[in-house]
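Incident log, entry 3
Record: precorrin-2 dehydrogenase (221 residues)
Problem: checksum mismatch between cached and fresh output.
Input:
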Amino acid sequence: MGYFPFFMDMERLQGLIIGGGNIAAEKLEKLLLAGASLKVVAPEIKQEILVAAGVAEIKGTAEQQNADREPEGSECTEQEKPGRVEVIRREYRTEDLDEVDYVIAATGIREINDKVCREAKQRRIPVNVVDDPENCDFIFPSVVRRGRMVVGVSTGGAGPRVAVRLRKQIEEMLPGDIEEILDILARERIRAKKEIPDPVQRRKYLMDLADGLLAGLKHGK
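Fresh output:
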């Protein structure tokens, strides 16, 4: 299986997470850092998911939570950040796949994950099945994020611990002012497009600027 590291604009895509446990919370938190819009569907939603999603915390015992729910067959939707996160407390339904761009199956139940995977693939929707790399159309890399800069490290599922160690090494070698440098380059790129009409001269100016800034970088966090 060959992977290619596409960098997608997550704000333009609608994601779906089936599952409400710890792994689902972990995936949700990572995607929210990229500005993703997501729907989370599960009969039981851990408080960590609601906190990560910015939704009001679930309070009370499990019995009290069940008593407060809508009658069986209905659904409870909580949404605090319009266009960002929608939490639906019920079992997965096939129609949950309507108008979504990618799916994460993280229920911890093999039969449900397989059903989500099968139905997503039938619709040609990319799917990630937790702990089942053979059925994944995409996987989550170990990520270094510094402002505009994003570095993803993956071993294709062969050695996640190796990816984590490499990520830490990359973090240690990055200069502390890389975010400031990238902000300068972004501003200058916009200005150069307006003030330097010749594409060759503009490219040379931006390359020289980047080289000069990189030459003066201070290493370390």
